[in-house]
């Protein structure tokens, strides 16, 4: 059994920055990373960290999320609605990491993959559209369409315990195509009281580190110091050219503008040595993938810096697959998928309607694109795990990745596959490289959240208050507790 | 309650409050003579207060630039006499210097909205919706009489922080719009250069109000390409384009109107057609040139006065014309009331009195006069119209009934006979020129002298003046102390301030008409608003009340010239000086010849050499 480990922090700045270097979020946080390294060195911690990530359109167990050696004999990749009976696997060890979860391969010794979990049905139906809205509450919503959360969401349950004393109960971020649907309905502090998730990196940064700090540190357009320098150099170039046409008080206006820019640059340089109280903020972006990278990078820093101990990121879960954000740019070049990027871009182009319609596409298109999407998100999660490792928080953490629908986007409320990395400080039995499939939906998501909450020592009072059918409320999954 | 008054509000220390009509130029701001482009300064007599420059370094973007002039230009610091509205046969003064005219907050936001639009707006179309949020550029500070001033206005540090945030957000939006065009398929590869040229030129011509030169396009294109190289193409393509757009939005060519011109003689240049288009458009519509104006500039049709006048006429009649309304609103300081709190017993909801209602209805009156009285006796109408707009929130103040609810369009009505005459007696201005619970006759008198008669009144350190008990006295009774025994030093200024201010005693702190002054809770005294003006030319003479006074103003050449001087300052963004005699004289002549058509006045200003010529 694992125990909480106390030792000096050996934070790897290089590793952190390299991992963050997946996108725009990296450089902007480099100065900050440098400093919380030094700040954290020599310290020990017993903080416990929970990181949850969800993606829309389901995780089809017949596609790329089941270890091949445990694939069911009746698996049919053409079956886009795979629910129903499944073949139990309780303790499959040393499995082959499935394609969708390849970014987690370095952490396979603490990896648990589960399949077969049941979700409470949405608005009296079998599931499908809108199931995402009760993913973390497991209680039907308060309005006719169940769009308003029916109870406190799991992030808040965990946050009350894990983030006690921290500035934020939970770091709630994500991106959805339908902003209103997405951000207001996934998380709630109580029945009917939604908590919006941040979709704008700049706003998220400001919320964490404050407007004053954000402005003092630059709020630099284009998100990183190098781009800021290009911008300022361009402005100075223009001003200098224009100055030659003026004299006296009119030239003084340009002199003043030039000085304002130079002073601003100096303030940025001064803030390059900030610690966990701030850094250089990213800006708003219209690119969903870029926004996710930036949001995730900020949240990772905030976790390590102790702004909160709970982070939930949601990629498009909500009312329907149309909530899926457009992540086209992850195939724009070889940054994420190397030479395979053009093929994936081509596949996406063959789909029904890009990412928003990926749930309707056959495996040859949707399966491949979803696998790549899971890998992209997995890479983001891996950067968080790396930063947790660097800050000796890995041993106390649990990172979970799942979808808003079991199976595919239209699935019945069953067969929610998920991958979990970490053991929550030794209380959660994730090690041993296990694969578990609960047969015939014998356990529910509510059971799973209750189990994880229990492992973290969180009070589960108030969670899942609505009377539910017995099938959904069997209590903790004892086999998963150490 | 004991009420105190200053024994003398205006000490005769500068000689400014002599018996002659004087310039209203005051230190550091409105009347400042600071704008002598050639460093000549003002001159004539000691009355000229000269320009001390604006010393604000705060959020308005105005910088401390030191002294203006105390020297010799033909009009500086001196009374604006009728003779100075004459155009000499030979103009010896030099034109104003080349100028950088920073955009106002409204101009900036309208420009950004235009850039985001896919096509250049036709003059017959409304302005596109401006981006959400406040403008990152801030209004000029309160020392500046008009929001359009160019004097010392630059970009201050607080503005730059806001500009950076705005530019990033807005540039990202521009990238998004670019994706609907060539950028969708040419963010890299062989089509990149052509696409960048198109995008940079399209956005740049609106931001800079002129075509971009080839080297400028190449410069911004290189920003894109270099950034793509440095950051990769995954998210680099859009980010790189955004970076270039940010550089363009924040460029001095974007934030300022550079008035450089093309040489006509050594040391003198004349605005280029594109510069004319920019200045015309911002002055009259607070937005960048529309399609018609742009085409005229591109075709070289903005070089002759008649060509420019045709555009002025078109723009002032267009759906987005804002220049004249803006000038009148600012001239009468109709929004000043918003900064003057009123007593706690005055409500702020429903049909209770609301300052915002008073201001909005005064602006509705301005709009009405501009719309319906533009071609005949425009300025006179501003001083005489009995029309008022009102709602249930202001009907009691105006002595009217049946006003609509405050959230509905105001009703148009006629004030009770003998109670209102034009905007000087509007509740908005009268309320603004009063404190929470006092009518402030001196404040009103100063406004009449400085803004209507262009007669300067110096600021005085009120704290240095002893106060007397004035409980139970009317304003007129209190003012006896200004001219009584031992107050000789006060009389110089108060002799011109008191009567002009007391004329408006019929309007209480909200601007409601009254005949009695409730000097104490238990005592009311009749209002006596009579007085005499002297040494202000054809505005001289006795009057019984504000109605008589403002009616006289409506026919006074002195007042007309003063309004025109203010119009010059608003539309030109600077103080007038000797070189501008012809512009002012011709504007007045054109206005009179047309029977009082304000378009003729504006057209004369905006086709003048004062508008077109620059020295360097």
Task: Walk me through the structure.
Chain A has helices spanning 13-20, 24-40, 154-162, 179-185, 201-209, 211-216, 225-243, 248-271, 288-305, 334-337, 341-350, 363-390, 445-455; strands at 49-55, 89-93, 111-117, 171-175, 188-190, 193-194, 310-315, 397-403, 416-421, 434-437. Chain A has 482 residues and is of the alpha/beta class. In chain A, the strands form two sheets. Chain A has an eight-stranded mixed β-sheet, sandwiched between helices. In chain A, α9 runs parallel beside α12. The longest helix of chain A is centred in the last third of the chain and has 28 residues, at 363-390. The model of chain A is unreliable at 1-44, 212-223 and 270-275 (pLDDT under 50). By secondary structure, chain B is mostly helical. Helix content of chain B is 42%, strand content 8%. Chain B has helices at 105-116, 157-179, 183-186, 192-208, 214-231, 236-250, 252-255, 273-285, 291-298, 305-317, 323-331, 355-372, 378-384, 395-398, 427-432, 441-452, 475-483, 488-502, 546-555, 557-572, 581-593, 598-606, 609-612, and strands at residues 4-6, 99-102, 256-259, 262-265, 268-270, 387-390, 411-414, 467-469, 516-520, 523-526, 531-533, 541-543, 613-615. In chain B, α1 runs antiparallel to α4 (192-208) and α10 packs across α22 (598-606). Mean pLDDT of chain B is 83; it is low at 1-15 and 18-80. Chains A and B meet through α7, α8 and α9 of A and β2, α2, α5, α6 and α7 of B.
């Amino acid at each position: 059994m694992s125990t909480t480990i106390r030792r000096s922090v050996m934070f790897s700045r290089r590793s952190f920055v390299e991992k963050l270097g997946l996108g725009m979020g990296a450089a902007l946080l480099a100065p900050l990373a440098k400093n919380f390294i030094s700040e954290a060195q020599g310290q020990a911690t017993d903080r416990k960290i929970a990181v949850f990530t969800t993606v829309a359109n389901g995780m089809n167990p017949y596609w790329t999320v089941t270890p091949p050696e445990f694939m069911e004999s009746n698996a049919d990749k053409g079956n886009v609605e795979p629910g129903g009976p499944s073949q139990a696997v309780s303790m499959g060890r040393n499995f082959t990491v499935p394609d969708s979860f390849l970014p987690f391969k370095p952490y396979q010794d603490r990896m648990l993959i589960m399949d077969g979990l049941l979700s409470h049905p949405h608005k009296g139906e079998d599931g499908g559209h809108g199931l995402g809205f009760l993913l973390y509450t497991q209680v039907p919503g308060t309005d006719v369409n169940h769009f308003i959360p029916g109870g406190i969401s799991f992030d808040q349950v965990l946050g009350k315990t894990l983030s006690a004393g921290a500035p934020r109960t939970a770091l709630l971020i994500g991106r959805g195509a339908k902003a209103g649907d997405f951000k207001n309905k996934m998380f709630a502090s109580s029945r009917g009281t939604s908590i919006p998730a941040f979709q704008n990196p700049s706003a998220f940064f400001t919320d964490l580190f404050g407007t004053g700090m954000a402005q003092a540190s630059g709020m630099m357009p284009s998100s990183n110091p190098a781009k800021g320098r290009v911008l300022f150099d361009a402005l100075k170039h223009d001003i200098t050219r224009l100055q030659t046409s003026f004299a006296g008080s009119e030239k003084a206006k340009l002199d003043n503008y030039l000085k304002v820019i130079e002073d601003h640059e100096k303030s940025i340089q001064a803030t390059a040595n900030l610690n966990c109280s701030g850094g250089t903020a990213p800006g708003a972006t219209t690119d969903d993938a870029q926004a996710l990278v930036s949001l995730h990078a900020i949240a990772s820093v905030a976790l390590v810096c102790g702004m909160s101990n709970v982070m939930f990121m949601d990629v498009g879960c909500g009312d329907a697959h149309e909530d899926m954000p457009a992540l086209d740019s992850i195939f724009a070049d070889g940054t994420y998928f190397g030479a395979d990027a053009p093929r994936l871009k081509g596949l996406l182009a063959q789909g029904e309607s890009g990412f928003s319609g990926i749930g309707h596409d056959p495996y040859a298109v949707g399966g491949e694109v979803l696998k790549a999407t899971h890998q992209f998100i997995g890479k983001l999660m891996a950067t968080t795990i790396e930063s947790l490792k660097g800050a000796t928080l890995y041993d106390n953490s649990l990172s979970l990745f799942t979808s808003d629908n079991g199976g595919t986007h239209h699935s019945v409320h069953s067969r929610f596959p998920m991958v979990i990395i970490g053991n929550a400080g030794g209380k959660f039995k994730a090690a041993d490289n296990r694969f578990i499939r609960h047969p015939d939906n014998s356990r529910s998501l509510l059971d799973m959240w209750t189990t994880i909450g229990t492992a973290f020592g969180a009070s589960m009072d108030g969670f899942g208050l609505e009377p539910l059918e017995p099938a959904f409320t069997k209590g903790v999954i004892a086999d998963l507790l150490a | 309650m004991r009420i105190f008054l200053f024994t003398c509000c205006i000490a005769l220390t500068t000689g400014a409050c002599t018996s002659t009509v004087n310039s209203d130029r005051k230190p550091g701001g409105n009347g400042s003579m600071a704008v002598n482009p050639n460093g000549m300064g003002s001159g004539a007599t000691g009355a000229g207060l000269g320009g001390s420059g604006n010393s604000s370094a705060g959020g308005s973007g105005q910088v401390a630039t030191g002294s203006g002039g105390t020297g010799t230009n033909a009009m500086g610091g001196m009374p604006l006499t009728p003779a100075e509205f004459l155009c000499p046969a030979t103009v010896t003064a030099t034109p104003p210097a080349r100028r950088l005219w920073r955009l106002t907050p409204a101009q900036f936001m309208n420009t950004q909205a235009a850039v985001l639009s896919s096509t250049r707006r036709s003059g017959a179309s409304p302005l596109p919706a401006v981006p959400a949020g406040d403008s990152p550029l801030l209004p000029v500070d309160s020392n500046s009489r008009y929001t359009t001033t160019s004097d010392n206005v630059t970009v201050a540090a607080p503005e730059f922080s806001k500009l950076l945030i705005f530019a990033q957000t807005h540039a990202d939006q521009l990238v998004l719009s670019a994706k609907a065009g060539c950028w969708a398929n040419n963010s890299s590869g062989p089509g990149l250069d052509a696409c960048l040229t198109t995008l940079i030129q399209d956005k740049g011509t609106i931001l800079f109000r002129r075509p971009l030169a080839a080297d400028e396009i190449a410069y911004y294109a290189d920003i894109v390409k270099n950034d793509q190289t440095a950051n990769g193409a995954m998210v680099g393509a859009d980010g790189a384009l955004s970076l270039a757009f940010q550089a363009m939005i924040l460029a001095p060519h974007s934030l300022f109107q550079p008035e450089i011109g093309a040489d006509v003689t050594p040391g003198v240049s004349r605005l280029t057609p594109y510069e004319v288009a920019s200045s015309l458009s911002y002055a009259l519509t607070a937005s960048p040139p529309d399609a018609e104006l742009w085409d005229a500039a591109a075709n070289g049709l903005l070089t002759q006065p008649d060509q420019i006048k045709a555009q002025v006429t078109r723009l002032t009649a267009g759906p987005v014309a804002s220049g004249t309304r803006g000038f009148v609103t600012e001239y009468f300081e109709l929004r000043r009331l918003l900064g003057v709190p009123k007593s706690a017993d005055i409500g702020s909801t429903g049909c209770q009195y609301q300052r915002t209602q008073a201001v909005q209805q005064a602006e509705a009156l301005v709009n009405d006069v501009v719309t319906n009285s533009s071609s005949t006796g425009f300025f006179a109408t501003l001083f005489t119209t009995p029309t008022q707009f009102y709602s249930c929130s202001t009907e009691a103040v105006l002595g009217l009934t049946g006003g609509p609810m405050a959230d509905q369009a105001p009703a148009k009505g006629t004030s009770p006979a003998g109670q209102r005459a034009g905007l000087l007696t509007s509740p908005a201005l009268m309320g603004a020129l009063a404190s929470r619970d006092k009518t402030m006759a001196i404040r009103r008198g100063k406004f009449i002298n400085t803004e209507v008669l262009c007669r300067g009144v110096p600021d005085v350190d009120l704290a240095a003046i002893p106060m007397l008990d004035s409980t139970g006295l009317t304003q007129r009774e209190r003012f006896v102390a200004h001219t009584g025994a031992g107050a000789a030093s006060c009389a110089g200024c108060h002799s011109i301030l008191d009567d002009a201010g007391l004329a408006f005693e019929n309007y209480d702190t909200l601007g409601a008409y009254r005949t009695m002054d409730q000097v104490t809770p238990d005592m009311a005294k009749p209002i006596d608003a009579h007085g005499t003006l002297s040494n202000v030319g054809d505005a001289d003479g006795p009057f019984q009340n504000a109605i008589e006074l403002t009616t006289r103003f409506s026919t006074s050449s002195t007042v007309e010239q003063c309004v025109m001087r203010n119009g010059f300052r608003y539309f030109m963004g600077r103080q007038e000086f000797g070189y501008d005699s012809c512009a002012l004289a011709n504007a007045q002549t054109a206005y009179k010849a047309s029977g009082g058509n304000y378009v003729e006045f504006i057209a004369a200003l905006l086709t003048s050499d004062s508008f077109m010529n620059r020295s360097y």
